[in-house]
Specification:
Transmembrane segments: 57-75, 82-106, 118-140, 152-170, 176-195
Number of helices: 11
Strand order of the largest sheet: 1-2
Number of domains: 1
Radius of gyration: 22 Å
Number of strands: 2
Keywords: Membrane, Transmembrane, Transmembrane helix
Protein name: Integral membrane protein
Order of helices and strands: HHEEHHHHHHHHH
Organism: Streptomyces yaanensis
Length: 253
């Protein structure tokens, strides 16, 4: 483990990225735990207010992200780079935890629309983890022949997988395309299977094929019925269950 850390994290200069990712995940987890306690009316926590205004945690998140980002640019690889990386990770965790609020310009934290925040956080953590795990095989010196061949294979695999992800995206499978960038088999399956109705692929290639359009619609319906419940349960486990019939009105937390 120590050798892997030295070769793949410290030597390529990815230690600040590891610190930022750790701070990002911990900040999101702690923030969700606190907001769930507030929402349930438990614990010593409460909403932050100033002059009757509800201060969402995206506000300090923006401040930390700006300070951490500019600080990291100034410090580069200096001793302060790790400190500013942690600040940036904390700020990004706070900001993306309220991504849905920014997207909708409304307090939708405990609504179905608020689930987008959980999706974005999970995706961000997965992509950064992908880089840290060595799938961005750059910056390591003195590679052996086997290591060069292995990393070259990784680059080729990532390139081909990227094409599959683009094809899946053209078929209207945005989540499959995004997570397919992490798991190659997912992108391949998304690229091979029928396109979703209304996608650019379906409009282009199913226009004169009514049977294909019907099959695509039926498959999309069954797919959504099969996986929607599982996806919602996973999001509820991570971020908490939204309020039933919530309309996203201000200060409903």
């Amino acid at each position: 483990m120590g050798h892997w850390l030295e070769r793949n994290i410290i030597e390529p200069g990815k230690l600040p990225l590891l610190l930022a990712l750790t701070a990002f995940v911990l900040t999101f987890a702690i923030t969700r735990a606190i907001t769930r306690l507030i929402h349930a009316g438990k614990g010593p926590f409460g909403n932050v207010r100033a002059g009757g205004l509800h201060i969402h945690h995206v506000v300090p998140g923006v401040v930390l992200t700006v300070v951490g980002g500019f600080g990291a640019l100034v410090s580069r690889q200096g001793p302060g780079s790790g400190f500013f990386a942690v600040l940036f990770g904390m700020g990004a965790g706070l900001v993306l935890d309220e991504f849905a609020l920014i997207l909708h310009l409304a307090d939708v934290y405990w609504t179905d629309e608020g689930r987008k925040s959980v999706e974005v956080v999970v995706l961000t953590a997965a992509l950064v983890g992908l880089v840290l795990a060595g799938f961005a095989p750059f910056g390591v010196n003195d590679l052996s022949g086997d290591e060069v061949q292995g990393r070259g294979s990784v680059i080729a695999t990532v390139g081909v997988n990227f094409l599959f992800s683009l094809l899946a995206l053209s078929k209207g499978k945005a989540r499959t395309a995004i997570f397919g960038a992490i798991v190659p088999l997912v992108a391949m399956v998304g690229a091979i299977r029928l396109a979703r109705p209304g996608s650019p692929w379906a409009r282009r290639f199913y226009r004169r094929r009514p049977r294909a359009r019907a099959r695509a619609g039926l498959r999309s319906y069954h797919h959504d019925r099969r996986w929607a419940g599982l996806s919602r349960r996973a999001q509820d486990l991570i971020g908490g269950r939204p309020d039933p019939h919530s309309t996203g009105l201000p200060d409903h937390r």
